[in-house]
Design brief:
Keywords: Membrane, Transmembrane, Transmembrane helix. The protein is mostly helical and about 55 residues long. It has 1 helix and no strands. It has one domain (about 1-53). The termini are far apart.
Amino acid sequence: MFSRLDRRAAVLGLVGLLLLTAAFIAFIYVVSPLRKPTFQPNSANAGTLISGL
């Protein structure tokens, strides 16, 4: 059986993982070029299409 300390550590680990995931999603949203209305996939930015792939 889990002791009270083990259960507390598991809950804190889960909460920490959820917070880290939320921070990562927020970071990706902030730096995403797709949020810009002027974003063009075929221009000389990170969305440039590569014909060989």
